Amino acid sequence: MNIVLIGNGFDLAHGLPTAYTDFLTFLKRINTPPIKSADFNQDLEALINDPANLDIVEKMRKLFLNNVWYNYFREKTITNSNWCDFETEIEYVVRQLETVKKIFRRR
Fold first, then answer.
1. For residues 36 and 102, is the Cβ–Cβ distance under 8 A?
2. Would you say residue 30 lies in a domain?
3. Residues 6 or more apart in contact with residue 8 via CB below 8 angstroms
4. What is the pTM of this model?
C-alpha cells in the first residue's frame, strides 16, 4: 500500500479555490446574478450554470440564504475582506453564548 501525505496549503499552492473566502464567494455567487469578473473562478461559474447542477445549486441557495453562520461570516468579510479565521470566530461566538446562558440561568 502506498500512502501520500499532503501538507496544509497543498490545495492553495496549486491554485485551487478552497480557502474560506472562496467558499463565501461561492455562496454569495449562488445568491446573486452571474459575475463577469476575473475575481470569480470561471470554471466554478460554469459548474453553477450547468443545467445538470441546477437542483443542487438551488438546494444550496435555499440552505444558506437564511443560515445564521453564513450571514454572520458574510458580514465579517464585508467589513474586513482579509479576515478568514473561522475557527477562532466560532469559538468566540460560542463562548459569548455560554456567558449569556449562565447569566440567564442565575435569574
1. no
2. yes
3. none
4. 0.61
Q: At what angle do helices 20-30 and 68-79 cross, to 10 degrees?
A: 110
Q: Which residues span the domain enclosing 48? A: 10-106
How many domains does one find in the chain?
1
At CA 85, angle to CA 79 and CA 88, rounded to 5? 115
Residue 44 domain-assigned (yes or no): yes
pLDDT per residue over 57-105, tens digit each? 999 888 888 888 888 887 877 777 666 678 888 899 999 999 999 999 8
What span, in angstroms and rounded, lies between the C-alpha atoms of 56 and 73?
Answer: 22
- Is residue 4 one of the residues assigned to a domain? no
With respect to residue 3, please indicate whether it lies within any of the assigned structural domains: no
pLDDT tens-digit readout, 21-51: 788 888 888 877 765 666 677 888 888 889 9
